[in-house]
Write a structure and sequence with these properties.
The chain has one domain. Strands 1, 2, 3, 4, 5 and 8 form a 6-stranded mixed β-sheet that branches. The protein has a two-stranded antiparallel ribbon with strand order 6-7. It has 5 helices and 8 strands; from the N terminus they run H-E-E-E-H-E-E-H-E-E-H-E-H. Strand 4 and strand 5 form a beta hairpin. It is 18% helix and 24% strand. With 195 residues, it is of the alpha+beta class. It is globular, with a radius of gyration of 24 Å.
């Protein structure tokens, strides 16, 4: 039986030896790690978050959405299902935005009604989205003016880190399991009082 104990050559007996633990901090290509986009929540920007909205028209679209008030969940309808569910959904424009950490979100902002009338809060949100296309902003609610008020980061010229995915790919992530494309969908049945 061999009683020899293996020791690394020139290794310190202290496992917390700084020279043995120190790593090379020279910048590399992310150390071979890529951030995977697995969630893209549909939501309004948090009032404490600085954010930017993607300026490209290819990163916004008008869609039919249902927001279940009791759970806060959003569901995307195909145009065929929207035609069947008149009065249950609302037309929204989805805007891609990111926060300072590079987290991606889709901001659903209601569109004007069929007569072109716009709730002041929704119109204000649309104006904030347009402002955020060129500035880092935060928004807060102001009931006195009936809309959102921005704070603009005047000295911050850093460019946002946008996801590489297309809007179509982002929609697939955001509304996975939440696309209403058939009358048999559980949400359709729930809203119609079936089952």
């Amino acid at each position: 039986m061999n009683d020899e104990v293996y020791h690394k050559p020139n290794a310190s007996s202290d496992p917390f030896d700084l020279d043995a633990l120190r790593i090379d901090t020279t910048p590399t290509e992310g150390f071979g790690v890529e951030k995977l986009l697995t969630r893209v929540p549909p939501c309004r920007p948090d009032k404490q978050a600085w954010f930017r909205v993607h300026p490209g028209a290819e990163y916004r679209t008008s869609v039919a959405l249902i927001n279940l008030k009791e759970s806060g969940e959003w569901f995307l309808l195909t145009p065929a299902m929207a035609a069947e569910m008149f009065g249950e959904y609302r037309a929204h424009t989805l805007f891609l935005y990111v926060n300072k950490s590079g987290d991606a979100f889709l901001w659903p902002i209601p569109r004007p009604d069929a007569d072109g009338n716009w709730n002041s809060w929704h119109q204000s949100a649309h104006e904030m989205a347009e402002l955020a296309m060129s500035h880092w902003i935060r928004i807060s609610s102001n009931k006195t003016v009936g809309g959102y008020v921005p704070a603009v980061a005047k000295l911050d010229t850093t460019e946002p880190v946008w996801p590489k995915e297309s809007l179509q790919e982002l929609l697939k992530i955001s509304f996975k399991g939440k696309l209403i494309d058939t009358p048999e969908h559980p949400i359709v049945k729930k809203l119609r009082g079936i089952g």
